[in-house]
């Protein structure tokens, strides 16, 4: 039975931001309000605190820190995943985040910041799963089902990296939000959910003894904040990200959300 060592997963989350600037060299946005949107359904990047209902997670902490360094304020809003990119493109929100993978198709619609996390896709299964140990064994049995949210990286990796390339394959059970797909896995309605390594750690930490990761990586992805095309915020946000990488803030956030939260 193959499982993923935590240290390997954590190593994959190191931020990939090229420029190095210190906080005192950053642009000053003079108290500007940045309207930021997320979904609150992608543990541990963004989700509702089970105790308070307040939005928390890696992306909340990271962007609040970015705003503080740039002398800006954040107006947090919520949106479903399927409307988020279009809403940011149209300028309804200034910046969006939801573990959004940087790819060429999306770059034709919106602007991305530099990558803030690098992760890989793995198969999340129930902790007692013993019928298959990897993607190859899963693919051979037509009875095994994936849970996925349409239009996401997880969906496309399931279609093209594991199954037959047919986006209408009945072995993929679609859900409007990511959370319900994980709940369906928990209750046995599906047999696996593809998930980036960062979120897999979050779900395993929030549900001890319920889930595990099997097999090897099925794809690598970089996450970036999305911006309205031509946004003047791109340069300042990238500079703030670079300073947070340089002074260890991003590493501290990785520890907080991918280790401390898992083990609290």
Name the beta content range: 15-25%
The average pLDDT value, as a whole number, equals: 88
Helix fraction, binned, reads 25-40%
Q: What is the number of helices?
A: 10
The helix-strand sequence is HEEEEHEHEHEEHEHEHEHEEEHH
Radius of gyration: 18 Å
Work out the number of β strands: 14
Determine the N-to-C terminus distance. 26 Å
State the shape.
Answer: globular
Architecture overview:
It contains ten helices and 14 strands. It has helices at residues 6-11, 58-69, 81-89, 104-107, 135-140, 153-162, 178-187, 197-206, 234-246, 249-263, and strands spanning 32-38, 41-42, 46-48, 55-56, 72-78, 95-96, 111-112, 117-126, 146-148, 172-174, 192-196, 211-214, 220-223, 226-227. The strands form three sheets. Strands 8, 9, 10, 11, 12 and 13 form a six-stranded mixed sheet that branches. Strands 5-1-6-14-7 form a five-stranded mixed sheet, sandwiched between helices. Helix 8 (197-206) packs parallel to helix 10. The longest helix is centred in the last third of the chain and has 15 residues, at 249-263.
